[in-house]
Target: YdhG-like domain-containing protein
Amino acid sequence: MAQSKLSDSEQVTRFIEKLDKPIAEAVELIRQIFLSIDGISEHIKWNSPSFFYNGEMQPFDPKEYKRDIAVTNLHRGRLMLVFPTGAKIVNNTGLLEGNYTDGRRMVNFKGADDVKAKEGSLRKVITDWLSTVEK
Model:
């Protein structure tokens, strides 16, 4: 009997379960922040947990990444959250870093305590991003 494919959320859960505990705790906190906001879903994209807008949108070129809110980037024990279209967000929280010509912005986290400390600013960045969606 063929195995059924895991749902997007199950794939993210499996991914997180394989991480070292300190990083897994931080990624799970980020996950819960995103999923507590209406209109956001998760999946594995670019080999990491990613968050996207799941509502109706105006047609767009997929290479513009207009649906993609953020992707986690885990490299050498470092945890970054990359917003591919972060330049369109008014960065009045000071949370977003970088000034890349492709429009991405990033947030660096040192661990679960750092995620908790930045939660309010992260929620603001996410809701500001959602306000830019062309519906």
